[in-house]
């Protein structure tokens, strides 16, 4: 083969290679050669070019498929280099971060997490780069372009070439904001349920203690009442008996607070105006608070009408205002008391203290705000617990009673506070129409006396003893029973019974069961039920059954006279 032929072949191949490199895919080398001297070589080269074209086409198709998957993924995908810089990011990641893919390219990955998490973020990336781990997963917050924070779940893995050299880190980020919100809602509901169970358990305990306490107070107040009635008015013992009477009254108030916390306080429901209640209380509130505290009223022009017990509402106001005064201590400050009316939806009524389902609708609100020391989260979580107090003095029942009264009125309470910035309590009660006139209390029948036989059934010996003395003072002949069964037997064997007084809670046969049996045995028998719980708690158990009267323990001789005289029993 001559030199000329070799040079010509090299020239043709070089030209063909150049043209292929410039993109001319359909060149046929055989066409460049006259004659057949390079025909076979040209055909071989053409075959190689066709194979190369097929492979590049397949590569383009594969790249297109991967691009579709990359861009259509519901997760954010990114490729980081060894320094933690974003080399590639898909559109989903750009959407999550509130940027464009081009804006993300070239930025440090750690710049897109909150500042307090960046050190940990860089440390995790370093551990992958240094082969301490091959991959890791974590939940963390990310920063959007507008500064908003969202929760994401990140998974990262090393990306190497065929020789094991690090190319970068491949990461996937999923937006788990909805999952986090669902978890937070679940935790909140669990917290509310636990708090409601705690309140219910403490309420049952407080109610039970108050019930038993009232039985003890019954003996104290009753004997004091009888002693004052029988003793010479000039006796020096009168002063001692009056002090006993006052102490018993304070103890009765304490028992009432415990019953209020349990939601079983004594309520006399009427239609009242919160504005009128507050105006009447202004002077009393001003003398009850610190000299350095200024009281300010901001009352709605329209009546804030609710159906509630006026005495219990006054107790709410007094407890909240005194609590506000104590929160300010010796500092100058303001206690603002305001009222208003508003429409409340279910979300507004949702709170951690009262987990009953309050219905949306119209509510009247009473708000007490102070500029005192405020509370941290731990204190706020316990403010309504019985016997919890941050003060050296006090029983810690004031706020517990507030919660119980609100619960008994089917209301709600919202609390907001910050340490050093004061506290605001807002009490919401279902709104009513225009408040009615105050009921005129009935005059007690002080000189009234009766006659006849009375059955007094109570499992407490002290109650039976003082009850017997009171009934005798009213002109009756009492017969006592220790439980419902004995009372029923006495009804069978004793003629001409004027009426029966039944304790609600007794062993063997309680007051409700005994009442039903007495009605069956002697249909016209008049029956009075006695209990340490209030009438609103007891009355539904006897609704439509013809109960003749109710008296709450501890009761005085005057209270017993009033209930008995209303029967017309003589």
Taking all Cα atoms into account, the compactness measure Rg is 43 Å
Which consecutive residue ranges, at least 5 long each, have pLDDT under 50? 1-8, 34-38, 435-441
Helix content: 40-55%
Number of helices: 17
Q: What is the strand arrangement across the widest sheet? A: 2-1-5-4-3
Task: Note the beta-strand portion.
Answer: 15-25%
Please tell me about this protein's structure.
The protein is α/β, with parallel strands linked by helices and 570 residues long. The protein is built from 17 helices and 17 strands. The strands form four sheets. A five-stranded antiparallel sheet has the order 2-1-5-4-3, with helices on both faces. Strands 7-9-10-12-11 form a five-stranded mixed sheet. α8 packs across α9. The longest helix has 54 residues. The N terminus is likely disordered.
Overview in brief:
By secondary structure, the protein is an alpha/beta fold.
Overview features:
about 575 residues; five-stranded mixed β-sheet; single chain; disordered N terminus; alpha/beta; 17 helices; five-stranded antiparallel β-sheet
